[in-house]
Amino acid sequence: MTATARFRPSVTVAAVIAHEGRYLLVEEETPEGLRLNNPAGHLEQGESPLQAVVREALEETARAFTPEALLGVYLARFLRPERGEDVTYVRFAYRGHVGEPLPGRTLDTGIRRTLWLSLDEVRASRERHRSPLVLQCIEDHAAGRALPLESVQAHASLADPLRLA
């Protein structure tokens, strides 16, 4: 029997933020050019998805994000054959709100700008989305999808790996 490589999906988080009928997106530099995305990023060692989404939203929008509910957990696969990349993403998406931009705070490297788009504008810009999950998450938000924040549990061992209880 031959050993196969263990499947290791990439875990990400995303903030879906609406205000007065518009959704907050970021325009970011990617290998495919400028793309639109929800404020999003990778889960880091030692943090919960909830902590990660607050951090990522702040880094990418320069605004404090307050999660209100888990929107859902999403999976998508992304191929870049020319670079030999085949990645499956597991995305924890949260709905919530943000305040005004924080003075002195800059956008994360690679983020060109933030913009507020209506649902119709998000739908019309589909070809510029970083992934199909951008629109899917926003459509779920518009449909009122919301799960309790407690739907995702983070054990204390994330911060303290020697903790057994």
Automatic annotation (TrEMBL):
CDD domains: NUDIX_Hydrolase. Keywords: Hydrolase, Magnesium. Its cofactor is Mg(2+). It holds the Pfam family NUDIX. SUPFAM superfamilies: Nudix. InterPro entries: NUDIX_hydrolase-like_dom_sf (IPR015797), NUDIX_hydrolase_dom (IPR000086), NudJ (IPR033713). Its EC number is 3.6.1.-. Residues 6-139 form the Nudix hydrolase domain. It is an enzyme of class 3 (hydrolase). GO terms for molecular function: hydrolase activity. Coiled coil: none annotated. Monomer. Belongs to the Nudix hydrolase family. NudJ subfamily. This is Phosphatase NudJ. It comes from Pelomonas caseinilytica. The gene is nudJ.
